[in-house]
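Example 642.
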Amino acid sequence: MNLLEDNQSTDLETLVRENSTGLTRRGFISAGALCGAAMFLGGNLLSRSVMAASVSAGNNTLLGFDSIPSATADSISLPPGYRSSVLISWGQPLHANAPAFDASGKGTAKAQELQFGDNNDGMSLFTFPGDSADTAKRALMAINNEYTNYRYLFDHGKEPQSAEDVHKAQASEGVSVIEVKREGGQWTFVQGSKYNRRIHGNTPIHLSGPAAGHEWLKTSADKTGRNVLGTFQNCANGKTPWGTYLTCEENFTDCFGSSDPAQTFDPAAKRYGVVAASKEVNWHPHDPRFDLAKNPNEFNRHGWVVEIDPFDPTSTPVKRTALGRFKHENAALTETKDGRVVVYMGDDERGEFIYKFISRDKVNHKNPKANRDLLDHGTLYVAQFDNGDSNADHPKGQGKWIELTHGKNGIDASSGFANQAEVLIHARLAASVVKATRMDRPEWIVVSPKDGQVYCTLTNNVKRGEEGQPVGGPNPRAKNQYGQILRWQETGSDAASMAFAWDLFVVAGNPGVHAGTPQGGSSNITPQNMFNSPDGLGFDKAGRLWILTDGDSTNAGDFAGMGNNQMLCADPQSGEIRRFMVGPVGCEVTGISFAPDQKALFVGIQHPGENGGSTFPEHLPNGKPRSSVMVITREDGGVIGA
Ligand code: FEO
Ligand code: CA
Ligand code: CA
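Predicted structure in complex with calcium ion:
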């Protein structure tokens, strides 16, 4: 979901100066890699045209395809030898006798509860226990449905006009669990599988962890503060080592409003962005649960990471409060050297933070069910970055993690926190107390399977300077319309570390419009691979870094030549980036997963034709565009990207 106008106004003094010497390149450059060597020397010794030549020469051993041109067509573009097909689209019935998709917009809420949700986003694939990766012929996929587009959801094309409309909108969001199967190298959706399931805006869900049962989570409908209805605005995802799915609640604030236009809000509520007038969602006039004048605490029961067992269609999802409450983008999991689970998380709003959770207990790899409550006990930290060096092409520096525990680091009654539950419910405020670094909208985070380095997209922040957020370090632009990808290596390559070294893997820009860094992009940006607003990220098994964009697709002005939103692929060692796919008109490319044998790539096309102009993917006359999960395969059946 593109949020160029996020609300954020809190002022913070953030920067600390620590030891910024002694940072090595940490494998940024592979021996003998031409363009890598150019970046090692500051990026000024090799012209962009030579960089471009290296892209088209196909001489990178990790990236086995040539960069494709940008495009503005209402279709998918791929390198020669690749093809795409639709796995599933918004409205497709999940069950044998469920109602078919109704393009008229007159379909009911009940029908939508039995159909694939709208605006698919983050997703994970789960092989069945015992199946080998190379031969698996079936799997489950859990797929987020982030939000809906009223223009297409309703026949009237406007915001909800009734309780039934609101119910339908809530049914279009959440998560879809589906079975998929492989036949002759092609993965397809299995309609009618007993695993197929919708979790949506009215599904019963438990709250667990330190904040569960707190006064602020109790409502007239739930006096325990432990049982909530629904998950919605489910952005991206995580996959645990014990085979469960994590779905992340992002723009939940937008779903709340007040029937009292004069209602005022305390600083905490304001920090989370509430306003009496619901921005565009407009649920509160027809569903009192979302009316802040009637149910002020319902708001606190959303904004969490939710754990789902895809293999048990009867299981109740669980909101894990130990991971903190904010506008969660995704959850990137790894393990410490001593076997505890680590979850990296970004809060996607201008000037908000990057977090890390470390579990108290170790992961039990022999007995997955023993990890059922692992995410309920642990410690939450927030990142603080130094200003680093002044190399505009490749900024780098040091950072540290600061604990968000009641009674530590000034987080106590003196700063307005009575206990740990309050710290977690108001994680943003606690992170401000410890002077965390205000970032350029942290989106996805991923951990390299090769060296444990962590990558995070900072998608854009056009108001950094205007809002008084400090300019520098990993956020080097006062008006950041293109975004950058941040990377860090934990000290000792241990995710348990409290310190790290950071650098910017790429600073996106437009070298066709702006000369030099930063607006022209870092030296690994060329006219052949330029993009804006990096958002989704994914690593494949071989260590290729896939980059998905949610940016300005006008193809004009500062964005001229960039075309529609796209997916690129990077070599983390050399820094080289090639454009792999371009999406249809008006879409965002988001959500990525791989078949176990790496011979199929699942990628999400979200909100094609967001403002009209698309009939993707069916291209029926006067047809509606439908968000879809695509399957990318090679005509020769080979590994994607190789
Ligand atoms: Fe749902 Fe921040 O993207
Ligand atoms: Ca985005
Ligand atoms: Ca996103």
